[in-house]
Amino acid sequence: MKVSQIWKYPVKSMVGSQVETCSIDIRGIEGDRLWAVRDLDNGGIRGAKKFGELMLLGARFVDGHNVEISSTDGRVVRSDDPNVHDFVSSIIGARVHLESLRPASDLDHFRRGQPGSDDLMEELRTVFGRDADEPLPDFSVFPPEVIEFESPPGTYYDCWPLMVMSTSALRSLRDAIPDSVIDERRFRPSLVIDTGDTAGHPEFSWKGRRASIGDCEVEFLSPCPRCVMVTRAVSDDIPADRAILRHIVRDLDQNLGVYARVTKPGTVSVGEEMTFIS
Questions:
Q1: Torsional sign, CA 182, 183, 187, 191
Q2: Residue 176 sits in a domain of what CATH number?
Q3: CA distances (Å), origin 115, targets 95, 167, 182, 208, 215
Q4: pLDDT at residue 176, as a whole number
Q5: Is 54 helix (H, G, I), strand (E, B) or coil?
Q6: pLDDT tens track for 181-192
């Protein structure tokens, strides 16, 4: 098994880009999710679970801190431009403020905003994109702090530092739902591992195992429960598609890819081997 792709997402829920090499520490890939948007009307840091149009925007670093945000119609704005907040707000149709990552000690920054519904089950079904007759995920796989906070304080990722997918999983999706556009940008992996001709979703069996990837070491956690984000439009070529989530819920026990945390920081490059060490 080898590293096929490395993805970095400068802004939470916006499209990122592939890189050839990266540094990984306990917080995840260096430079990953250093920006996010705050909901000015209801509070809280928000992603594409709430504002799906965020996935119509792309982001890339222009220096060590600032990012350039681009829309599908070719418009571009930088994070240090005072008009950036209005630009993002106009795309997603809500009043938001682009904010950079704060330290974990700033707990109020990471607290959840107001829900979209007073009905908890309705809110959860909306966030996870579940139909009325579909089950909700097993919430025990999420770290307990995400009950109170939008993300683990000091981070803008949803739950865990890394989400890993296999080339087998992507191929299996294309075979199972041939009328859907299966593109990595829908699923936001940190790493894609080339698993050769292995069938199905081999990463589901990695739970509890440790592996070296480059000179980094990771521990694989639970398979990743999927939410409404995988149904969102990313571009004209990657349209909104609820059939993908229906397949994941019905046939894959709600999961796609696997979460991981970093047990030894290091550097990872495309083409390097992934080897199990336990």
A1: positive
A2: 2.40.33.20
A3: 16, 36, 30, 33, 42
A4: 98
A5: helix
A6: 999 999 999 999
Is the pTM of the predicted complex or chain greater than 0.90? yes
**Residue-number span of the structural domain to which 98 is assigned:** 2-276
Using the structure block, give the residue that is written with the tokens 């299966």. Answer: 182
79 φ, ψ (degrees, to nearest 5): -65, -20
Three-state DSSP state, 2: strand
Token reading at 54: 């965020």
Q: How many CA atoms lie within 13 A of 24 on its CB side?
A: 28
Phi/psi region, residue 275 (left: phi>0; alpha: psi -120 to 50; beta: rest), is: beta
Question: What pLDDT score does 273 carry?
Answer: 97
Predicted local distance difference test score (pLDDT) of residue 64? 83
User: Do residues 189 and 165 touch, judged by C-beta distance below 8 A?
Assistant: yes
Determine which helix (DSSP H) or strand (DSSP E) holds 274, and give its type and residue range. Answer: strand 274-276
pLDDT tens digit sequence for 145-161: 988 999 999 999 999 99
Spans of the chain, pLDDT less than 50: none
Specify which residues 262 forms β-bridges with. Answer: 218
How many angstroms separate the CA atoms of 53 and 223, rounded?
26
Say how many C-beta atoms besides its own lie within 10 A of residue 232's C-beta. Answer: 23
The total number of structural domains in the chain stands at: 1
Q: How far apart are CA 148 and CA 48, in angstroms?
A: 19
Q: Which two tokens stand for residue 273?
A: 């081997």
